[in-house]
Design brief:
By secondary structure, the protein is of the alpha/beta class. It has 16 helices and 15 strands. The protein has one domain: 5-stranded Propeller (L-arginine/glycine Amidinotransferase, Chain A), CATH 3.75.10.20. The structure holds N~2~-(3-carboxypropanoyl)-L-arginine.
Length: 419
């Protein structure tokens, strides 16, 4: 099979809850301490995958990490029962669902050794995300164990924050051709942390053996981070030769656009002016956290969250865009409200890997029948709701652990990924 884009979605874990853990992520703060609905959340994620499979797109999965993370708590000298309130929610977080933060991926045509390279993200800025990487690394090494086609790297040392593909864009005329990779980093976020450090991005470019002539580094604008764009994929998305971005996404947009026009002669830059859609509306609606995909029949579609349709300035602008003659022809809407309430839209939930699906461990590739089996496990085992105080309940803890085990068994991953 030729190289194609495969979207690996993180299955939303049974411990999904709202703990307000991500400072600078406005949705996470706004929904702090609300009651979450893990079962609905996971079913929404599964429906999004089903929607994309029906479009003819290749789909993969990553499974939830063991939660609570007993090992991490033990390293901190405590346990799930005794942990202070400042630590317990972080140990239970289902944040690995946002697979766009799992790793940075450079497809084979871009790298010196002709393999697809993945570097697991250290996610060191937020404590609840900083302990994801070891288990994510194990999973990546399993899914992409074919050493002829893949190389999975350990994370950049934690001094330099790295949040993975959410701060990385790849441009090309078609997926199988040598691309141009753009790493977006934060310098200052005003009151909020800049989560991607330029030194981490530079290290990844070196690990992956990228061509320096075709690798760009662009700073996020300070206003964007301050307005709640804690990752670049909240204000920009790219696919093949198209960049779809907010006017205020980058610190120096003309420098970036000039470099892109030089390196990708057929690049199409669709910029949404702040006068039409404010940064505030962009971040509230997550219109840029859409999956921008090439449809098998040709043309591109934006797979958007419901919240984009509900934001008048955004929907008016998008409808006018598709009525024009541009590369984006369709607006498709999915319901991922449970994830959105923690600041994760359709694009956050997936990691794009350009590869031949036959070279990936088949247990990580899904079709509709496999999704039916996963949905059955979710209906049977995932908690219906979690309130913050429930994290103290040992029965809930057992239920969460049992739910993950049931899923691993369903996917024949029990032996490899048991906690
Ligand atoms: O890291 N939210 C995630 C959302 C990640 C979105 N990913 C991308 N933009 N690619 C984060 O801020 C909230 C968890 C909580 O508050 O319970 C959280 O981790």
């Amino acid at each position: 099979m030729p190289l194609q884009e495969i979207n690996f979605d993180g299955i939303i874990g049974p411990s999904h809850n709202y703990a307000g853990l991500s400072f600078g992520n406005l949705a996470s703060a706004a929904n702090a301490l609300n009651i979450s609905h893990p079962r609905d959340a996971a079913l929404q994620g599964i429906e999004k995958m089903r929607h994309n499979i029906r479009l003819g797109l290749a789909q993969g999965i990553f499974v939830p990490l063991p939660r609570p993370n007993h090992e991490w708590l033990a390293d901190l000298g405590t346990t799930a029962q005794d942990a202070p309130d400042s630590l317990r929610p972080a140990a239970f977080s289902a944040s690995a669902m946002w697979a766009a933060n799992a790793a940075t991926v450079s497809p084979a045509p871009d790298t010196e050794d002709g393999r697809c390279h993945l570097t697991v993200a250290n996610l060191r800025t937020m404590p609840h995300r900083s302990h994801e990487w070891p288990e994510t690394h194990t999973q990546l090494r399993l899914a992409f164990s074919d050493g002829e086609h893949f190389r999975v790297h350990r994370p950049v040392p934690p001094t330099f924050g790295d949040e993975g593909a959410a701060n990385h864009m790849r441009f090309c005329s078609s997926h199988g051709e040598k691309g141009v990779e753009v790493f977006v980093y934060g310098k200052r976020g005003g009151a909020f942390p800049a989560r991607q450090h330029v030194e981490a991005s530079r290290a990844i470019a070196r690990f992956h053996g990228l061509d320096a002539e075709r690798t760009l580094f662009a700073a996020q604008s300070e206003e964007a981070i301050a307005a709640g764009a804690f990752h670049n994929d909240v204000v920009a998305v790219a696919n093949e030769n198209v960049l779809f971005a907010h006017e205020q996404a980058f610190e120096d947009r003309s420098e970036l656009y000039t470099a892109l026009r030089r390196l990708v002669p057929d690049v199409e830059i669709i910029e949404v002016p702040a006068a039409s859609v404010s940064l505030e509306d962009a971040i509230k609606s997550y219109l840029f956290n859409a999956q921008l995909v090439t449809l098998p029949e040709g043309g591109m579609a934006l797979i958007l969250p419901e919240e984009a349709r509900e934001t008048p300035s955004v929907w008016t602008w998008l409808e006018a865009m598709v009525a024009g003659n541009g590369p984006i022809r369709k607006l498709l809407v999915v319901d991922v409200r449970q994830s959105m309430a923690n600041g994760g839209g359709p694009a956050c939930l997936r990691l794009r890997v350009v590869a031949d699906p036959d070279t990936v461990d088949p247990r990580f590739i899904v079709d509709e029948a496999k999704l039916d089996g996963i949905a059955d496990v979710v209906r049977e085992c995932w908690p219906e709701e979690i309130a913050p105080k429930d994290l103290l309940d040992t029965k809930l803890c057992e239920k969460i652990e049992g739910a993950r085990e049931a899923l691993l068994e369903e996917l024949d991953l029990g032996e490899d990924l048991a906690a």
